[in-house]
Amino acid sequence: DTEVTQTPKHLVMGMTNKKSLKCEQHMGHRAMYWYKQKAKKPPELMFVYSYEKLSINESVPSRFSPECPNSSLLNLHLHALQPEDSALYLCASSQTGGSNYGYTFGSGTRLTVV
Amino acid sequence: DAKTTQPPSMDCAEGRAANLPCNHSTISGNEYVYWYRQIHSQGPQYIIHGLKNNETNEMASLIITEDRKSSTLILPHATLRDTAVYYCIAGGATNKLIFGTGTLLAVQP
């Protein structure tokens, strides 16, 4: 299995809702990432997990809460989002231990906040 | 992570080689050069990466200058399906990849 699977593919949520995005990989990768991408912009790094521990938080607002329950699964919990948080949310994974590894990206979750 | 500079857009005729340049003049010795591409609304796709030497795989070739301050991605025979935004990234030493603005490659029939 050489894929990163993200669910759901599309999500519409109200500003008072709580929802979660899910990301799964079975490549044995021990680093996992969340990126946010607005239309016509490059992906922006949000969080990095290494060996199931949060290693990088790029000053993301607390209404985004990441979780890594095990080495194959990465969640992003969403609460009290704003319409400007509407974007494509991308998950990626890679080997750890150095930079001689590429990232594998999922196809993303298209989030619309109404 | 080092900053990269790429032209915002390029055109290429179908069947011809596409040569995409990237400047990374502040790259440090342990940072790799990565290339990814993103077809509309899909996740970025890994193409190739390298440290010092030129690299080739089934998708593309990567030519890195001797001083490592710039590189060129070569798609040897571009097809319409190669139309995408191509991102050159210098980094990875801190286990994070920071995307620049990329080059929109339009392959023309």
Q: Approximately how much helix is present in the residues of chain B? A: under 10%
Query: What's the assembly state of these chains?
Result: heterodimer
The major sheet of chain B is characterized as: 5 strands, mixed
Whole-Å distance between the termini of chain A?
Answer: 36 Å
Helix content bin of chain A: under 10%
Decide which structural class fits the backbone of chain B.
mainly beta
Percent of residues of chain A in beta strands? Answer: over 45%
Mean pLDDT of chain B: 92
Q: Your description of this structure?
A:
The complex is a heterodimer of chains A (114) and B (109). Chain A has 114 residues and is an all-beta fold. Chain A is 0% helix and 56% strand. Chain A has strands at 4-7, 10-13, 18-25, 31-37, 44-50, 53-57, 64-70, 73-79, 87-94, 104-105, 109-113. The radius of gyration of chain A is 13 Å and the shape is globular. The mean pLDDT of chain A is 93. In chain B, a hairpin with a 6-residue loop joins strand 3 and strand 4 (45-50). The mean pLDDT of chain B is 92. By secondary structure, chain B is an all-beta fold. A five-stranded mixed β-sheet of chain B has the order 1-9-8-3-4, with no helix packed on it. Chain B starts with 8 loop residues before the first strand and ends with a strand. Chains A and B meet through strand 5, strand 9 and strand 10 of A and strand 3 and strand 4 of B.
